[in-house]
Amino acid sequence: ILYDAGAISKVAFESAETRLKNAELNLNSAKSNYNTTVGSNQASSQAAVDSAKAALDIASNSLNNTRIVSPISGYVANRNGNVGQIASAGSPMFSIKNSEVVNIEISVTESVIPYITTDTKAIINVETANAKNIEGLVSAVNTVKSPQTGMYTVRIKVDNKDENLKIGMMADVVLHTQTSENALIIPNDAIMQDDDGYYVYVVNKNIAEKRVIKIGVSNNDFTEIKSGLKENEVVVVSGKEYISDKNNTVNIVEE
After folding, report:
1. Distance of CA 134 to the CA centre of its chain
2. Which of 120, 147, 189, 197 is the most buried (most CB within 10 A)?
3. pTM assigned to the model
4. Cα–Cα distance between 53 and 31 in angstroms, integer?
């Protein structure tokens, strides 16, 4: 209660209580008069009852406004006022935080955003909390690109009942945007790009041949090859930057 917290004076609190009690008395009186009235006076008595009810609602609401109740459970993160200060309408006085469920916000490029929807699975690692392989779900996808970063904001919801994750911590996030079974994959380091698209160098009898490829699903280490390569073909991973049409002889080194 605001009075208990010292946010309003005793006079203001008792005044709200008095208005409520008077409104209740007026309503009871109006009801009594209505029950004993007949004929033409009944309409005016009904109006008196309705007026008393309205006054009671106003007084009850005024008394209820002396109590601040948080809509969620949690803890006070910010207090924007002091005891005795008059609060402005529309100005938040407190910020309540609940860390049993936390939200992680990331920014993704336009090449990735088409593959992200709500309920897309994510794996989260938070080094400072020693938290590894925590599962989360995408809860919101911003469809408007940020003018500052040129990227799209994605929000991920993570259960945090043990409150191990703290608000403001940095997290590494892996999104499961696409899957592919029985895929032909090669290391990302083998792939290059020019005006013709993506390509690799394929080794045939110690000669490196440029091969245009079509890629599919990719992660931090490997990329799926949709076309342009066959299983067991050898591609150049290291030193490919030095290969040209005239300098295309290579020696295979196994690591």
Report:
1. 16
2. 120
3. 0.47
4. 10
